[in-house]
Amino acid sequence: MPIDFSGTWVMETNDNFEDYMKILNIDLVTRKIAIHLSQTKVIIQDADKLTIKTLSTFRNYEISLTIGEEFDEYTKGLDNRMLKTLVNWQGDTLVCTQKGEKANRGWKHWIEGDKLHLELYCEDVVCHQVFRRKQ
Ligand code: 1AG
Questions:
Q1: Is this complex scored with an ipTM above 0.95?
Q2: Residue 124 three-state SS
Q3: Which residue windows are coiled coil (predicted)?
Q4: 41 CA closest ligand 1 atom index
Q5: With CB atoms counted within 10 Å of each terminal CB, which end of the chain scores lower, N or C?
């Protein structure tokens, strides 16, 4: 049985988000707004199906997927790119690869204690976000 990421998670830290946005060619004005946002993750995990909502006062983003099945991801409201995205288990870590225009793009989610971690990477940039479970 893999672990369950389901729940509501509130952002605590967001390291190197500016460089991650830059490498995705996000414009300066958008970056200035986005850098100050508190993001909330709402995750619904049901067997091999996963919905992840990223919520903020500025924009929301949502993906729904089946683990192990590649799908077309359109990063609407983020960098607006088309990706071929695949999420798999690597032990208790969710590992995502996002094939597209940008090299070495993807993310990893894992849990440590009551913290949800997210590493977002693209080319040589890594952004590390930590969320705490909302009671
Ligand atoms: C993601 O997480 C990223 C979800 O897929 C959003 C997090 C960061 C934003 C990504 C790139 C920056 C692009 C534009 C900035 C503009 C608005 C920021 C809005 C932030 C809230 C949506 C992996 C997984 C879920 O958890 O897909």
A1: yes
A2: coil
A3: none
A4: 26
A5: N
